[in-house]
Design brief:
The protein has 438 residues and is an alpha/beta fold. The protein folds into three domains: 164 residues, P-loop containing nucleotide triphosphate hydrolases (Rossmann fold), CATH 3.40.50; 175 residues, Rossmann fold; 80 residues, GMP Synthetase, Chain A, domain 3 (2-Layer Sandwich). Helices cover 32% and strands 21% of the residues. The chain contains eleven helices and 15 strands. The strands form three sheets. The chain has a six-stranded mixed sheet, sandwiched between helices. Helix 2 runs parallel beside helix 6. About 6% of the residues have low confidence.
Length: 438
């Protein structure tokens, strides 16, 4: 999947934005509560409709002109989301009616030239349609009456959204160059690493987290080959509120991951693998990107012959099922082992493109499956896997044909993945396993 368009959901507090986010994504990720202002952390998820994909952002309730520090933070975040978005969903509440806040938000949104959809929520049936009329006063052309809770008229909204977005720039099928995104927490050394690769001061580097203002592409010439380096961003403009740095950085990181073949997750050797690193890693895996963990600032660590092994063991314990990810200890400042990152990224791209012949897969896997079959269903029915093949695509996807596709537990899926990695490696590459009806 290449660079995805961004659609932002916004509106005043408690109009049903998170409910709509959950409906569109099919996940219950955003917190939904009757108390206004519950959505504090921004939520992001990829939405698919009719074969088209876009990134959906759920924002907090926008309160114009409030001096409350929390509501000021949300206003900043909403404006950042608007800047990033290719289209905007403006949600209002039919049951509460038109509010002065709605009018203020509409006035702000009409300054932008981006596709804008006014979504009148909580229209649960034809009897409620009359409640839509007063919202036409906002002067927004595209108006939709929906029920986010029930799913009413959601399809019509999605149809029009994907028609308005230009997806032509999202596919780089003709660009065969290796694209590497350098991602990680603020101040992990991303720009320093990019500069080390390039041998020039391509990006501004300071000790202030969030210095990088945009995702910046650079071309690395490596033994005659062009490699695209994507250095990810902190802030476009200075924010007074710290949590907004993470919000904006997350949006940029997701975009960079989407555009690349392999992501280098840079972590600080002095801080180790932290919760935020794991969240970024999950975003990379979710997008089926190749991944390398680079432990930066290794030159600042006091060490002996056992330090690296102990550090690596501690990281793999935290990674759990992601033990297929290679770890490299580097120093962006001294350029220690940075060439190994490029070589690994090239290998991982090859691993992603590797195709296993169907006959070879079945000759290897079916006897292993026969020796250790899936557990029987709850009713005692035997589960049989009869056939395996690798699907076409840019990422390794394996189809297992079985009589009971819904009965195979995740633990057995992990067993099959281990079998595949034991013989075919796929180092640094997520594997997708799908069970299909025989």
């Amino acid at each position: 999947m290449a660079k995805l368009p961004v659609v932002a959901i916004l509106g005043r507090p408690n109009v049903g934005k998170s409910t709509l986010f959950n409906r569109l994504t099919g996940k219950k990720e955003a917190i939904v509560d009757d108390v206004s202002g519950v959505t504090r952390d921004r939520k992001y998820c990829t939405v698919e409709w009719c074969g088209k994909y876009f990134e959906l952002i759920d924002t907090g309730g926008y309160v114009p002109d409030s001096e409350d520090i929390f509501e000021k933070a949300i206003r900043e975040q909403v404006k950042m989301a608007i800047e990033e978005a290719n289209a905007i969903i403006f949600v209002v509440d039919a049951k509460l009616g038109l509010s002065p806040f709605d009018e203020e938000i509409a006035k702000m949104l009409k300054k932008y030239t981006k596709p804008l959809y006014l979504v009148v929520n909580k229209i649960d049936g034809q009897k409620d349609e009359a409640n839509v009329n007063e919202f036409y006063k906002l002067g927004i052309e595209k108006v939709y009456s929906i029920s986010a809770l029930q799913g009413r008229n959601i399809g019509d909204l999605l149809e029009d959204i994907i028609k308005s977005i230009d997806f032509s720039s999202d596919l780089d099928d003709n660009d065969e160059r290796l694209k590497i995104s350098i991602v990680g927490r603020p101040n992990a050394g991303k720009s320093t690493l990019t500069n080390a690769f390039l041998g020039v001061e391509r990006n501004i580097v300071t000790d202030i987290p969030g210095t990088t203002r945009d995702s910046i592409d650079s071309i690395l010439k490596y033994y005659g080959e062009e490699i695209v380096l994507i250095d990810t961003a902190g802030l476009r403009k200075r924010s007074k509120i710290k949590e907004n740095i993470e919000f904006y950085s997350t949006v940029r990181t997701l975009k960079a991951i989407d555009r690349s073949d392999v992501s280098i997750l840079l972590i600080d050797a002095q801080q180790g693998l932290e919760h935020q690193d794991l969240k970024i890693l999950e975003d990379i895996i979710e997008r089926n990107n190749g991944v390398i963990i680079a432990v930066n600032k290794w030159d600042l660590i006091e060490k002996d012959s056992k330090t690296a092994a102990a550090f690596e063991k501690a990281i793999y314990e935290k990674l759990g099922k992601y033990d297929f990810i290679p770890i490299v200890f580097i120093s962006a400042v001294t350029k220690q082992r940075i060439i190994k990152l490029i070589e690994l990224a090239k290998q991982i791209k090859e691993e992603k493109q590797k195709k296993i012949p169907t006959s070879e897969l079945n000759d290897y896997l079916l006897p292993e499956i026969a020796n250790f079959p899936p557990p029987a269903t709850k009713t005692g029915k035997e589960v049989k896997i009869k056939y395996v093949t690798q699907a076409n695509g840019k990422n390794p996807i394996f189809l297992f044909f079985t009589n009971e596709p819904k009965s195979i537990p995740d633990s057995y899926k992990r067993y099959l993945e281990k079998l595949l990695r034991k013989k075919y490696s796929f180092e640094g590459v997520p594997i997708t396993i799908v069970f299909k009806q025989k």
